[in-house]
Write a structure and sequence with these properties.
With about 900 residues, the protein is mainly alpha-helical. About 70% of the residues lie in helices and about 0% in strands. The strands form two sheets. It has a two-stranded antiparallel sheet with strand order 1-2. Helix 6 (about 95-105) runs antiparallel to helix 7 (about 110-125), helix 11 packs parallel to helix 13 and helix 12 (about 205-215) packs antiparallel against helix 13. It is globular.
């Protein structure tokens, strides 16, 4: 490096490199300027100066200097390497790899460039190239441990576990017998466990177990040793030995569910779907009774039997489990019991049991059959549990009555108000739920969780501004809103995006959804530093697991919600473009082609100029040091130039933007119905008939009985029947594919679409949403039968489940489904009278719902208070009382004044 320079300047060049590595950028810049004063065209110095400026956030200058340097010295591996580093800093990994390869053509044995190239190959999952590069590094420097390990990991990631084992054993062969020294025991033990895990993955079970026993003394992590040992023993069928190991593991960690599951497998008593014969239940019951004697402090050993026990034994076990937790006052008890509600019959048993506990405590102050007097708080926690139980079963009136009774009993317990907010949300009164959550928040202003729950309720009630003010109470001073983005607070951004979408503010909604997508992109980039760190620290098993996690990162529910939300925004934008863009399109259509071209060029130049000015402004602001209270210098953060997302709406092709996110969902969430529903909607709008048909086939494959699958199926073939005769070769090909696939669909079977719809209705006549889907399709296929379609919906009956011992029947209709049907009647079928009748019916069914203006909702309470206030204004009644009531909302007869809920 700098070999073409005189000695003095060559030393200065070394100083630039050293300053860059030690982050002394100003010192390096000064040295670069000293060289360039004498040699203004020296390529390597220009490149290093550009790289230094890049670290000082002066990207435009950096790229210009690096390109000048490369132009002046194309045969310098330093210039190419620096250009690659510049691209790497901007996440342009493919371009960086090209630059590194060009550098290696000039200097093929450069260790530093090879190492940087291998990191990028691992990041981009170019596994074949990764293996090749790691082999070169090992050949060049075989005495370096990291090169051996890196080569083995590369083969393992490239699905060649046998080769990875050979390399690790060859590396062990280079070590002395007394290796490792005390300082390296942990790292060496991790390497041994990694090698044994690869053997297990490759199916070399006996060999892996022998190796594990042979190297036991050198493995420091004894818990990992035992877990690896029992895994191999179970796979080898040596279940008796495995049972002993699981007992020893349970002695170490008696609350680990995986160990109990493994123990059951060793005894042949494990079922994934929790279905057991009476004999197996007896054996399991005996097992856990013996384990309870052994691990008296374990809660898991008491909770697990509730999953497999039935009837009377379940009731006895649940009673034994629940009583001490009610006495102790464990708020999370219902969350623990909640999975039991998915097992038929158990919810009824729990209800009878909890009602018995409540009755006994309220009358005698004791549990049934107990002589011990319970503390007063036990009754309150029993009411709390019962309220959550009724909420889970959709009996919101009973749930609200019980939670109000609990609050009246002990009004200082915050968990009661949080639970009441959740019940109100489920019942449909989002405004009252937000106000109740805010009341809970005001009781403990230092609790971040309660604050976050309050913010979530506010966003669900579309109180976005109030939610923002409440959320930033737990952020740093300064740019508080951006601080939430910096903290990757995705639940907040998703809830905000959904709220903005409901309110029709697509710009802000898109901004929130795309912010979440940006977080996932950042997570993908964050793995970069671990490629070298994990090899150096020998955390190899964790490293491989991290890479596997990164490969399925976009299947996470938060990303799915964000991508689906963005797609819905773009579809809505396509269906209802903004007025400004529509006006511009009309004006453009009036211009001549040459004028259109000039106008577009002018617009592009203006956009480029604005972008450059914004970058310069941000650069200036970032270079201006702000003095903090402590006197330290701080760099200002770049300003958000599009806070309302207005520029996000100015896309030429919204459907093309939506397609980008749809492809990610199709790759990572292929088993989700929503993915294929969005694909159908998107491709039908793009007139991509075969892709829409593919979406329909996927829906039918995943869930053919789903109402949405049925609707998409009917819509597609109804649309296909309206196509004109194919003319072009492409149209003929599309038509021939559809005709060839039609006989394979069992739904048709030579039936007409009307017959298919009737058959679907007959099959699912007791389901509200299925009837609604059939009614919508009937109206689409035969518009003249509008009244019949409406009748189909209105004749739906709620098959309420009368439970043995339950206080009231469990309702099957869900609030969100009823809201969807109201919107269907109002917009799609376009029958205002039917929509009004449905709203009246649902107002009685969901009396707390604000959407249906139920008689007990906060909307009705406020409107009645406002009427009383108006009457007082006109001379009647108590003026002050009416005014106070107008500023409040009613919850089950208790008036809570909003002005008292301070933020």
């Amino acid at each position: 490096m700098g070999s073409s320079l005189p000695l003095k300047e060559a030393n200065l060049f070394k100083l630039i490199v050293k300053s860059y590595e030690t982050k002394q950028y100003k010192k390096g810049l000064k040295a670069a300027d000293a060289i360039l004063k004498k040699f203004p065209d020296h390529g390597e110095t220009l490149s290093m100066k550009g790289l230094t400026l890049n670290c000082m956030d002066r990207k435009a200058e950096a790229y210009e200097l690096v390109r000048r340097g490369l132009k002046n010295d194309l045969k310098s591996h330093v210039c190419w390497h620096v250009y690659g580093l510049l691209y790497r800093s901007d996440r342009e990994y493919r371009e960086a790899i090209k630059c590194y390869r060009n550098a290696l053509k000039i200097d093929p044995d450069n260790i530093e460039i090879l190492r940087d190239l291998s990191l990028l190959q691992a990041q981009m999952r170019d596994l074949a190239g990764f293996v090749e590069t790691r082999q070169q590094l090992l050949t060049l420097k075989p005495n370096h441990r990291m090169n051996w390990i890196g080569f083995a990991v590369a083969h393992h990631l490239n699905s060649n576990g046998s080769k990875a084992i050979e390399i690790l054993e060859a590396y062990e062969g280079t070590l002395e017998d007394d290796y490792p020294p005390e300082s390296e025991r942990c790292e060496h033990g991790e390497m041994l466990l990694y090698k044994i895990s690869i053997m297990e993955e490759c199916g070399f079970l006996e060999r892996a177990l022998d190796e594990l026993y042979k190297k036991e003394a050198k493995i420091v992590d004894k818990l990992a040793f035992k877990e690896q040992q029992v895994s191999l023993l179970v796979k080898l069928g040596r279940l008796e030995e495995g049972e002993k190991i699981y007992h020893s593991l349970l002695f170490m960690i008696p609350d680990n569910y995986r160990y109990y599951e493994g123990l059951q497998k060793c005894l042949g008593l494990y079922s994934e779907n929790n279905q057991y014969t009476p004999e197996e239940v007896d054996r399991l019951d005996a097992l856990y009774k013996s384990l309870r004697m052994e691990y008296t402090l374990s809660s898991s050993v008491k909770r697990i039997p509730l999953d497999f026990l039935r009837d009377k034994r379940f009731q006895e076990a649940a009673d034994t489990y629940i009583r001490p937790l009610l006495t102790k006052g464990v708020p999370s008890l219902f969350s623990d019991l909640s999975p039991l509600y998915d097992i038929p019959g158990k919810a009824d048993i729990l209800e009878k049991m909890i009602l018995g506990l409540e009755s006994s405590i309220s009358t005698t102050g004791r549990f049934p059959g107990s002589e011990t007097k319970e503390p007063p708080s036990t009754f309150m926690w029993t009411l709390f549990l019962l309220a959550q139980h009724y909420d889970k079963r959709g009996q919101y009136d009973l749930a609200l009555a019980k939670i109000d009774e609990a609050i009246e009993h002990t009004p200082t317990v915050i968990d009661l108000y949080s639970a009441k907010g959740r019940i109100l949300k489920h019942a449909g009164d989002l405004v009252a739920a937000a106000a109740t959550a805010d009341e809970a928040r005001s009781m403990d202003l230092a609790d971040r969780f309660i604050n976050s729950e309050c913010v979530k309720r506010m966003l669900q009630a579309d109180q976005v501004r109030l939610a923002e003010k409440t959320a930033v109470l737990f952020t740093k001073d300064g740019d508080q809103h951006n601080n939430l983005h910096d903290m990757q607070c995705m639940w907040y951004e998703l809830a905000s995006g959904e709220s903005y979408f409901r309110q029709g503010d697509l710009g802000r909604a898109l901004k929130k959804f795309l912010a979440v997508e940006k977080h996932y992109a950042d997570m993908t980039e964050d793995q970069f530093d671990f490629h070298s760190y994990c090899l150096r620290k020998m955390t190899l098993r964790a490293y491989v697991e991290m890479l596997k996690f990164q490969d399925r990162l976009h299947s996470h529910s938060y990303f799915h919600k964000a991508a689906a939300g963005a797609i819905r925004c773009y579809i809505k934008l396509f269906d209802s473009p903004s007025k400004s863009s529509t006006t511009e399109d009309d004006e453009m259509s009036k211009l001549l082609p040459s004028q259109k071209k000039k106008l577009r060029q002018k617009q592009r130049k203006a956009d480029a100029r604005a972008k450059k000015e914004a970058e310069e402004k941000n650069e200036e602001e970032s270079n201006v040091a702000a003095i903090s209270k402590s006197g330290k210098k701080q760099h200002a953060k770049p300003v958000d130039l599009d806070p309302n997302g207005e520029k996000l709406l100015q896309v030429e092709d919204p459907l093309a933007e939506a397609t980008k996110y749809l492809k990610l969902l199709q790759k990572s969430s292929a088993n989700s119905l929503e993915t294929h529903l969005l694909s159908f909607e998107l491709n039908m709008r793009k007139h991509k008939i075969l892709l829409a048909f593919q979406a329909v086939k996927q829906l039918l494959k995943l869930d053919p009985e789903n109402p949405d699958s049925h609707s998409c199926f009917i819509k597609f073939f109804h649309k296909a029947s309206s196509f004109s005769a194919p003319v072009t070769d492409a149209e003929k090909l599309v038509w021939s594919v559809i005709e060839a696939e039609r006989p394979t669909l069992c739904q048709l079977k030579e039936k007409t679409l009307i017959e298919v719809n009737k058959s679907f209705l007959e099959k699912h006549k007791d389901s509200l949403m299925h009837r609604a889907a059939a009614a919508e399709m009937l109206y689409m296929l035969e518009p003249e039968k509008k009244l019949e379609a409406v009748k189909l919906i209105e004749e739906s009956t709620d098959n309420q489940v009368s439970a043995n011992g339950a206080v009231g029947p469990v309702k099957e209709w869900k609030l969100k489904d009823c809201i969807a049907i109201h919107k269907l009647l109002e917009t799609v079928i376009a029958d205002p009278n039917a929509a009004s009748r449905w709203k009246t019916l649902c107002a009685e069914y969901f009396p707390v719902s604000t959407y249906f203006e139920g008689p007990r909702s906060s909307v009705v309470s406020r409107s009645s208070d406002l009427e009383m206030y108006d009457a007082a204004e006109n001379g009647g009644g108590n003026h002050q009382e009416a005014k106070d009531n107008a500023a409040s909302y009613s919850l089950n007869g208790n008036i809570k004044v909003l002005k008292d809920l301070k933020i």
